[in-house]
Amino acid sequence: MKARKLMASLSLLTFSALVLGACNADNNGSKDSSTKESTTEVSTKESTKESTTESSAPEKVAGADLQDGTYTLKEKNDSNGYHVEFTMTVKDGKITETDYDYKNAEGKSKKDDAEYEKNMKDKSGVGPAEFIPALNEALVKAQSASGVEIVTGATHSSEAFQNYAQQLIQAAQAGKTDTIEIDNGAELKDGTYTLKEKNDSNGYHVEFSMTVAGGKVTESNYDYKSADGKSKKDDADYEKNMKAKSGVGPAEFIPQLNENFLTAMGGEKPSAGNTEVVTGATHSSHAFIMYAQQLINAAEKGDTAEITVDNIVTK
């Protein structure tokens, strides 16, 4: 009888162990399955995000395509021991590579100047070792000069980059692979210099004229015009909508930018890059500075031919 009870107890223990083991196996299986499902869900979300991003790429409605080739721009003169050298590669109509850098007379990069890096970083929080690669990456990503974000702590360098990138894009649209030479720092030649966008965006395009007399910028007339020549400053609806959103409208920021530019060019160290940005019209301010710098480059050469910008417009 005792032997039977012992055998029954052993059988019960064995059965319990088997059940417990099975439960643990199910639990482990559930955990693996949940992890797998979770991973699959994340992958699906990422794929959907990528697909959505790709499908939501803006459609171009105006502006010439970029022609394949390598486009180059170079400053003639050193400033603080360096000058800009900039190449942009276009393949299949897209900007695939850019090499924007500051080089000294020996061909060494500002990125490798440890003393310059330290001094600028201490003052601005960023140095050439950071902002130069960041700007190159931003242009490839944005595929437009105006789409390049200003690097905090390197505002002037970012605006100069936008100007030169825009000139290279204009060259790529025309398929002109000759090196663009910038006579940076040269005296401005007297004359009237003009720039005009070819295509309307939101019903307007930029028209910009700059007058130089006695080697000084004496007049600036930057405006947005409609197809029938009306100024955005006089568009009451546009003014009301922008002012409600940003606190400022074209009736205020356009004259202010012209005034700020004249102030910047009349200072001790004249520079379009010193043009003060108008609060509430940041994007328009940077676009203004980009075009102002291009007009200054024309005035340094004395080239009064109108600059036509075949600006890319998307919807």
Explain briefly what this protein structure is.
Helix content is 47%, strand content 20%. The chain is an alpha+beta fold and 315 residues long.
Write down the secondary-structure element order: HEEEEHHHEEEEHHHEE
Number of helices: 7
Structural class: alpha+beta
How much strand?
A: 15-25%
Order of strands across the main sheet = 4-3-2-5
Helix content: 40-55%
Major sheet description: 4 strands, mixed
Shape: globular
Query: Regions with pLDDT < 50 over 5+ consecutive residues?
Result: 1-56
- Total DSSP E strands: 10
Give the oligomeric state of the chains in this entry, treating copies of one chain as homo and distinct chains as hetero.
single chain
Amino- and carboxy-terminal Cα gap: 91 Å
Indicate the radius of gyration in whole angstroms.
30 Å
What features would you highlight for this structure?
315 residues; alpha+beta; 4-stranded mixed sheet; 7 helices; 10 strands; disordered N terminus
What does this entry look like structurally?
- The structure is a single chain.
- The protein has 315 residues and is an alpha+beta fold.
- It is built from 7 helices and 10 strands.
- The strands form 3 sheets. The protein has a 4-stranded mixed sheet. Strands 8-7-6-9 form a 4-stranded mixed sheet. The protein has a two-stranded antiparallel sheet with strand order 1-10.
- A hairpin with a 7-residue loop joins strand 6 and strand 7 (205-213).
- Helix 4 packs across helix 7 (282-301).
- It is globular.
- The termini are far apart.
